[in-house]
Specification:
heterodimer; A: 191 residues; Arc Repressor Mutant, subunit A; 2 domains; 9 helices; B: 235 residues; alpha+beta; 4 strands; 51% helix
Chain lengths: 191, 235
């Protein structure tokens, strides 16, 4: 009876890329989509219940087995490859592209207040962002957006998974409330 | 220009926004209620310090200092009669500052995500460069294609002679030529095709032919993940 679940499990295990629901459904025409969906959710649950070394996560629009972050220390001993490291500037620029996409370079520089050409180029090289096209305004600047690889790296299922900036704001307020109220500075010291 | 043979460049603050954030935090002031005079003073003091240390700073810093001074001067002016509900001039700096802080916070949050290869790992059923190197391709976008063309044509083209006598090939003829090549060999690299006939005209013609063939769904254009080679293959 639980054959379906095992089939799904084996497919996800072997798949190189995160396996999407659509792909699963097309691979298993003999099984009702509703059943596939139900068994997949059951499978995810099973791994969460088990609290093992890895679990089944939804990422970049598909499903993939990934190790739990708790075991990164040991896995790094095995896996010598150095992980992707992003500078602060790269991280900030990437965040702006992620939130404001489709975005042009001048928008990014407007927010950061600093030239961002070099950072954009390195993000393009890392394939975290890509060129979408050109904007129909004078100068025809390039338009950037994040890639599927970006979603995979950061374990996001969809770009909508990012907390909205509005949510960020309420988070900020919460943090501000925890702090002592700032002493009010008055503007006496005019220069 | 300064004559000093040695100059040091350090990026303590990446830009004026970074410096402003630092000053706001250091003074523990509310962004919507920034004491402009105090912040401007410290901002300029920092620029002086940079100058003293012989560090070049970007004009963006001066622009920001000017903006701050402008805001202060507007605050000193009495409100224009009849325009009482004019907004606080400080909003001009508070708004972008808030947006920048919000994105900084979002960046912090993003960094805390479990990153693949750093915190979390996926199983590799096959080792990366295993048995099927041909499978390791990604479909590429137009921009990568154009970029490759630009690189190749830069390496290639030397003479600027235009020869009107030669019989110019048409895109259609070129397509037939490429097709016969593909019949012999299932896949061809973009480079092979472009360099088959040298000269800008032929390169452009080949490029157009490849695009046309892709549009007609005759061929597939793919790029190898590791070495970046773009290949053209029969569908």
């Amino acid at each position: 009876m639980n054959d379906t679940r095992n089939i799904i499990e084996s497919l996800i295990f072997v798949s190189k890329e995160p396996l999407s629901m659509e792909r699963l459904i097309s691979l298993l025409p003999e099984i009702e989509p509703a059943i596939i969906r139900k068994e997949l959710l059951g499978l995810i649950d099973e791994y969460e219940q088990k609290q093992g070394g890895f679990h089944l996560v939804q990422v970049a629009g598909g499903f993939q087995f990934r190790t739990r972050a708790d075991y990164k220390t040991w896995i790094r001993r095995l896996n010598q490859a150095s992980p992707l490291r992003l500078s602060r500037a790269a991280l900030e620029t990437l965040t702006i592209v992620a939130y404001k996409q489709p975005v042009i370079r001048s928008d990014i520089e407007h927010i950061r207040g600093v030239d961002s050409g070099g950072v954009i180029r390195s993000l393009l090289d890392l394939k975290l962002i890509r060129v979408l096209g050109r904007k129909d305004i004078p100068g025809r600047p390039l338009i950037y957006s994040t890639t599927r690889f970006f979603l995979e790296i950061f374990g996001l299922s969809d770009i909508k998974d990012l907390p909205t900036l509005k949510e960020m704001e309420s988070l900020e307020k919460k943090q501000a409330l925890q702090k002592d109220p700032a002493p009010a500075h008055d503007e006496k010291n005019l220069t | 220009m300064r004559e000093n043979a040695y100059s040091v460049k350090i990026d303590v603050f990446e830009g004026p926004m970074d410096l402003l954030v630092y000053l706001v935090r250091k003074n523990d002031v509310d962004i919507t209620n920034i004491p402009i005079a105090l912040i401007t003073e410290q901002f300029l003091a920092y620029l002086d310090l940079l100058e003293l240390m012989n560090i070049d700073y970007a004009s963006e810093f001066i622009y920001m200092a000017a903006t701050l001074a402008h805001i202060k001067s507007r605050m000193l002016l009495p409100p224009v009669p009849g325009d009482e509900d004019e907004e606080d001039p400080r909003m001009e700096i508070a708004r972008p500052l808030m947006e920048y802080l919000r994105l900084k916070a979002a960046a912090d949050l993003l960094e805390k995500h479990d990153m693949l290869g750093r915190d979390t790992f996926k199983g590799n059923p096959f080792h990366e460069d295993d048995a099927h190197p041909e499978d390791q391709v990604i479909s590429i976008g137009l921009f990568e294609l154009v970029e490759t063309f630009r690189q190749l044509s830069e390496n290639q083209y030397h003479d600027h002679v235009v020869d009107f006598k030669t019989n110019r090939m048409t895109v259609k003829e070129r397509i037939i030529g490429i097709l016969s090549l593909l019949e012999k060999k299932a896949t061809l690299s973009f480079e092979e095709l472009l360099c088959e006939h040298p000269g800008k005209f032929m390169m452009v013609l080949t490029f157009l032919a490849i695009l046309e063939m892709a549009k007609m769904n005759l061929i597939e254009i793919r790029q190898h993940i590791q070495n970046g080679v773009i290949k053209v293959a029969y569908v």
